[in-house]
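Example record used in the benchmark description.
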Amino acid sequence: MTKIKSMLLASALVLAPVLAGGIATPAKAATAADLDQSSSEALRTLVNSDPAAADLAAHARAVLIFPSIIKAGLIFGGAYGEGELREGGHVYGYFNSVTGSWGLQAGAQSYGYIVFLMTPSAVRYIHQTQGLEIGVGPTVVVVNQGVAKNLSTSTLKSDAYAFIFQQQGLMAGISIEGTKISRIHPAGY
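Model output (C-alpha cells):
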C-alpha cells in the first residue's frame, strides 16, 4: 500500500467516529425553519457580545450567517455547515459553506461565522453567482480583536467583514480562506 493510501486510510479510521458522533450541534439543518432559528440566535449573540459586530450589522447591506460549521481532519480535512443570507431583515436564500484543506492537522472542531456584506457590489456578486468563494471576488476581511479595535464607520473600506465565533474542539486555529459558499434549498423552503 502506498504512503498516501495509508494516510487516507488512517484519516478515515480516525475521523469516522468523530463524524458519526458529531461534536456540538449538527452542521446540517433539517429545515429552513431550523436555519432561521439558529441563524437568528447566532446573529443576536454575536451582535450583543461584540460592539464592532453590532456596528457592522447596523450598516451592512446584507448578512451571511453560518451558525454551525463542523470541521474534521487528519492530514486531509473538510468543513461543512448551512446558513442563510439576510437582506433588510428578510431571508433572501439559504447557502452551504464547504472548505477542504490538507496539511498538518488532526482533530475536529465546530464554530460559526457571520459575514457582513457592506457594499452593493458584494451583494450583487452573491445574487449573480448564487454564492461566494472567500478569497475570490469581493474582499472579505476576517475581524479579530486587533482589526475590531480600528473599525469605525469611517474606516470601512472592504466589501465584507467576517466574524468567527463559538470555536469548540480539538483543532488549533480556523481559516475561512478558500471557503465555497453555494445556494441550497433546504427542506421546508
